[in-house]
Every structure is written in C-alpha cells, then in structure tokens.
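Z., the sequence and structure:
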Amino acid sequence: MSDLSQLLDSDPVVATAGADMLADSIEQQGSNVWRADWRPPHSDAADALARLAADGRMAAANATSIDKMLRVRPHLVDVGVARDVFPEMTDRTFFHAGPPLEWERAGGPMRGAIIGGMLYEGLATNPDDAAAKAARGEVELSPCHHHGAVGPMAGVTTPSMPVAIVQDGAGDGVSYSTLNEGLGKVLRYGAYAPEVVERLQWMSRVLGPVLGAALRSRGPIDLQSLIAQALQMGDDGHNRNRAVTSLFLREIGGALVDGADAPIDQRLDVFKFIDGNDHFMLNLVMAAGKLGSDAAAGTTASSLVTVMARNGTDFGVRLSGTGDEWFTAPAPPVDGLYLGRFTEEDASPDIGDSTITETVGLGGFAMAAAPAIVGFVGGTAAGAVRRTLAMYEITLAEHPAYQIPMLEFRGTPVGIDAARVVRTGVLPQINTGVAGKVPGTGMVGAGLVEAPIECFVDGINALAATVADS
C-alpha cells in the first residue's frame, strides 16, 4: 500500500480485498480505494498446498530456482539455419508454439502457419494441398519448448528458417528463436499469401546470413543490457519493443555498415528492415527469457513456473519441480483492440510462446514501465500500473536488472509461484497480439488476457504428489 500511495502522490489509499460492497461504499465517501484481486484459495488444491507447506522444502527450492533464473546473462551470438541448429529436426519437422498439438485440434492461426510453412519449404503446391498433406500427418509437429526454442504466436519453425542463437554469458545454456517478420499478414499470425512466403524466403536468403555475419564480425550482443535500458525508455519487452529494437540497431549497425561479409545492398536492406520493424527484438527477448526459464527448471519441490505457452487451443504451464509435464486448460479469449473492420468474432483464442516474457518479469508484469502500450493493447495507463503491482503478489523476487522508473526503479516482479497463484487467486497478467481465427487472415488486433487458474491448480496437485514420492 505504501508503494501505491507514493505512486499516486495522493491522500492515503484504502486497500480492500474480496467483496466489492465495501470498496463501493468507501469510494462513495470520496476516498481512494485499491481493490486487491483476491479470492479464497482454490478448493481443488487446498490439500496439496497444505501438504507442500508441511513438507517444508518448497521455500528453499524456490529460492534455488529463482536464483538460477536471475543468474543468466543472455547474449546473442549468431544466426543459424534451423536444420543445422536442431539435430532432431528432419525435412518434415515443424516446431510450434505452446503445448503438444496435432493438426486435428489446431485452430485457424496454427493451421494457417503450418500451411504457410509447407508452401515456404516446397512441401505443397497450394494451400489446399498443404492442408490435405498436414491432415494426413505428412509433417511432424513438435513444441518449440521441447527443443530449447520459442516462437511468437503460432511459433511455426521450419527446417529452412534462420534462427537466432542465444547463449548464457554466465553459464552454458543456449536457446533459440526465429527472426521477427513484422506485423500484419505474417506467418506467425497464420497468414500464408504469396507475399508472406516471399518475405520468409528473403529472410532465409538475406536477413539470416547477413545478421549472422555481422554478429561473428562484432561479437556477442548483451541482450539483458538492452532490455534493461529499454524498460527505462518505455518498453515492456513483449508488445512494446520500439526502444530495444532501436538499441539493437545501434549495436549491430556498425557491423552492417562495414563489418559484415555480405554485399552492401543486402546489408542496407537488412538495416532498413530492422529499422522499419518495431517488433524485431520481440523474438530475441523471448529467447533471452527462455534461457532464464530453462536454467530454473528441474529443482525438486519448486513451484516456480518455468513455462507459460499457448497453441491457440490449449494454454499450458510447466513447473520447475514437475519436470517436462504440461498442465493445460482451454486457451482463453483475448480482451482486445481490433484493427479496421475486425471484431472479437474474428479472433482466435490466445496463442503463442511469447508469454515467456511474462514468465521472466516482462510483458504484462512490466506494463508500469510502458504506459504508452495501452494504445496498442487497450486499458489505461493507471490500469497498466495496477497490473504490474498485482504481480508482486504472486512472484518470488524483483528483477535486479529490469527496473521500472514509475515505481521508483523497483525491479519488475519475476518468478511466478504457482502456489501463490492458487493461494491468492491472483492470475498472471499477459498482453498479447490477436490472430484471426480463419487460416490466412493474419493479425486482427492486440489485447490483454489472464492465465487460466486450472493450469496452476493441476500443477500444484502434481507437485504435491511428486514431493510426497521423493
């Protein structure tokens, strides 16, 4: 409450929890009210929470896992080709966002991205041919998260695509992501028109090789430093990346001008492409987040959330103490702002691996640093601050590098504790793009969404069972 009072620089604020009747009465008397989004602990996990508390190991385990997450120092070191980077990838292997998924259960954006990927790879002659082959199982689908990778929205990664390689400057971890196409009609939103495929072909022919050559010429780029600076400049690391993209362009610009072993016209095209794409750094921020979340995985008895991801059908969560097991619930709809003629009737349910940013203290958890984001995802600037403040209730730490000027440079809330989510009923806040539900549509808007409580309830029940057996 003291943080909120300082933030508002107003008279004392009355904090209320639970029923709105009291808050409404206080507001009618002219006082400022802070409404805590609190609910009683979920009844389906009450016994599991009690058993974890009695066991006594969870607090120390969580301290270990969050420490591992915060020790990571992500550095962009190179850009490679997916089939060369992932030894398990065949010519017909497609990675995708979110929990495991088959074509039969895939929604429109995922199907559209798979169709587009098949056209790009030359595995089909037209969209109908691609859809028929995918339905027959002629491509193997596998989650990005199973391979140390992440992909925004549909997240489809195919063998010929360039992928960013991010290494831990303080350890031996490595993570990967595709390169960002921009907004609108792009593959990750499920579009597959000829211009989408042509852009992907240019990215594999020019963007990836030129960026890789520039990185090998100038050396690694410290991504955490760029992200930390960008939070001071109005970014959130998820849906507002204008500042961090500009900072990245400054870092790579010298090598593009005279250090990369590539034709000058290609270097100029790459410079212009990055300069014209405010979301270019999103994928790299995601890879940096994946590095941290993977480092925190595998700690016995830890309730730290290491993955939140969506495939357009399911929302999935993984915990440090339960290994590779997914806990899923139906992907929720997004409360969005829509582009042009589009409405919520055109929207797919929530989709993408980009919630890795929230998992490591960015995105919806850092919206107080990016008040201008409400023009893209909706809500109000004051609401963005409230969303960030609420996330301190369900996290294990404040990030030492990612700080929020609006909150007197307090570190962003980081390290989602599934036990606290279940105990308080406060749900992780996410900002996100919105894809059209019809394959081929592309982007239709952006908005706000909450993670479903069922994922965390199931995770805590499984963690309690795992701890009891260990």
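The mean pLDDT is 93. The two ends are 40 Å apart (CA to CA).

Let me know what you think.
H.
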